[in-house]
Amino acid sequence: MAHEGKSIHRLKQNPIEKLFHNNWIREQEQGHILQYLLGDDNRRAHLAERDELVAATVIQWLGSPVGQGFLRDCGFTQEVND
Fold it and tell me: Structural domain boundaries of the chain?
């Protein structure tokens, strides 16, 4: 599976979305996080394409301006690295 959300066209204009998107892909390829999150008793779940699409879309959305506002409302702040 591609591990991509439905709004990848936004990545060129939104570097934080791109960061979230790329990190999600890397983590999925290395650790199959979503399979474990949706599985039972440390067993990997079988994923439908829709499962992948929804998860990747939400992860990317967290990097969007609206998603960043949601994270701030939850008490998370972004560190700036020089």
Answer: 8-73
